[in-house]
Records
---
Amino acid sequence: MSVATVTELSATSTQSFEDAIRQGLERATKTLRNVTAAWVKEQRVELEGGKVKHFLVHLEVTYVLEG
C-alpha cells in the first residue's frame, strides 16, 4: 500500500512560466523524495512600468511517503 501527500509551493522567474515551474520542481525534489506529480494551480505575472517583472506559479506537488 502507498500513501501520498501534497505540498503547495510558489515559485517565480523573470524568464517564463515554464522556467518558474522548472525551478519550483527542482527545488522541491531537493527536499522531498518520491515526487510523482505536480499540478499548476495558478499562474500570474507581476508588472512594473507596464512590463512583466516576474512570472509566478503556485504548484501542488504530490509525493509518496516512505515506510
Note: DSSP finds one helix and three strands in the chain.
---
Amino acid sequence: FYASGVRDASELHVRIGGQEVPVLYSGAAGHFPGLDEVTVEVPRSLAGMGDVDVVLTADGQTASPVHIHIQ
C-alpha cells in the first residue's frame, strides 16, 4: 500500500477484514519522492473474504479505511 506520513512511525499496525496482518516493510517508496510504502503479508485465512476494509494505524493515528476485494 502507499501512504504518506508513516515512514517515521515507531508503531504501525494493519488490519485486513478485522484481522491484524504482519507488516513486512514500511518506509520511503524509492521511486516516488515524498510517498511511503507499506508492505504486508496477506494470510491464506483471508482467501475468499470478498470485500473487506484495510485499516492502517501509525503511532495511534488511524487512517480512513480502504476497501479491497480478496478472491
Note: The chain has no helices and eight strands.
---
Amino acid sequence: MTKIKSTQELGQALRTARKRLGLTQPRLALAAGVGVRFIVELESGKSTVRLDSVMRVIEALGGEINLNGLAISAN
C-alpha cells in the first residue's frame, strides 16, 4: 500500500500505476471519462482537481482509496 500525504504524491502514484498498465494519458482519460488535460493536471499534483473525477481515474486504474488513522465514529 502506498501512503499519500500530498497532491504531488497522489499524482506520482497515479502516473506510476498508469505507466505500469501500459496506458497513455489519452487512453486513461477515455477509460475514466475525463479529459486529457485533467489527467495531466492530476499527475502533476495540481490541487484544484475535482474529487469525483479523481475517484473515476483511480477506479479506471483498478485502485481504491483506504482511509487509515481517522477518528470515525458510528452514530
Note: The mean pLDDT is 89.
